[in-house]
Design goal:
Order of helices and strands: EEEEEEEEEEEEEEEEEEEE
Oligomer: single chain
Radius of gyration: 17 Å
Number of strands: 20
Shape: globular
Helix content: under 10%
Structural class: mainly beta
């Protein structure tokens, strides 16, 4: 739904198909909304009020590897990134004729079957990735490397991640870890399971459980 809070108006822009379940919504710089679902990604063009879908298609080189997409975002260059349930980290990058699945880290750890739950892009362009069996990863889009960010305090089962003022917020089943990207200092806030996080325009962190 499109909600106009000022005028108290609600407009239905897309009706879910039977069995379709939305997980995550994000916006792009060209005024589109990406809605991640278990039936692929629904793209809503806010300016033109049009709907399109990105789905798995074996005959299409730029299609998704599967339809169960937990999270999808567009980075600052307009590349599409998607968290998959079984195929690691997916990217469809501008200027490339084929999409990529990053399903193995540079130190040989397989991400196949490892649920990628969330990601966030830092100011340096690098993408932080949370998984539910392989902990925290970092992807460098310049040299196309996926690094395992091993630590003695983070569990392997991570739910969400966001970045605010150079602070990395990592959601777990027991609370939120806050890590300074420059100094490495960290703090833990005990809470219920943190399924999702969002940085508000005020700088506050909105948490969903």
């Amino acid at each position: 739904c499109e909600v106009d809070i000022k005028n108290r108006y609600v407009k239905v822009v897309y009706r879910w198909k039977p069995g379709q379940r939305p997980y995550y919504i994000s916006s792009t710089e060209d005024n589109k909304l990406l809605v991640s679902t278990n039936h692929g990604v629904v793209v809503y063009d806010v300016l033109n009020s049009t709907i399109s879908r990105i789905t798995a298609d074996q005959n299409e080189a730029l299609s998704l590897p599967e339809n169960d997409i937990k999270c999808a975002i567009a980075d600052r260059k307009g590349n599409i990134w998607a968290c998959t349930a079984n195929n690691g980290l997916f990217s469809s990058q501008k200027g490339r004729l084929k999409a990529e699945c990053h399903n193995r880290t540079d130190d040989g750890v397989s991400l196949t079957g490892s649920m990628v739950s969330d990601f966030a892009q830092g100011h340096d362009g690098k993408i932080w990735v949370t998984t539910q069996t392989r902990g925290l990863l970092k992807y460098d889009p310049d040299d196309h490397t996926v690094l395992s960010m091993y630590s003695d305090f983070l569990p392997d089962y991570l739910k969400s991640v966001c970045i605010c003022s150079e602070q990395l917020y990592i959601g777990t089943s027991e609370g939120i870890w806050v890590v300074d990207q420059h100094t490495g200092r960290r703090h833990f806030f005990k809470s219920n399971r943190v399924e999702s996080m969002l940085v508000a325009s005020t700088g506050s962190i909105m948490v969903g459980g």
